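Section 3.1: Structural characterization of target chains.
Under the original work plan, the team committed to producing a structural model for every single-chain target entering the pipeline before any wet-lab resources were allocated. The record below documents one such target. The sequence was received from the expression subgroup and is listed exactly as submitted; it comprises 65 residues.
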Amino acid sequence: MAPRVLVRSPVGVAIVAWRVWQRLPPSARRHALQVARKHGYNVATKHGPKLALLVAKRARVPKRP
């Protein structure tokens, strides 16, 4: 088993999400897609701007050496 590593880059998150998706049984995949189709737009419009501000704020903060 691979070691657990905290992934913070968008590519890393995408890889982890893909690995989780592959482990889901087909019925759970279908259910996840149905829920995303039903609620995805509402979640994105409600929480998307807040997340975008948070990401922008973190990008402005200088990293420690």
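The mean pLDDT is 84.
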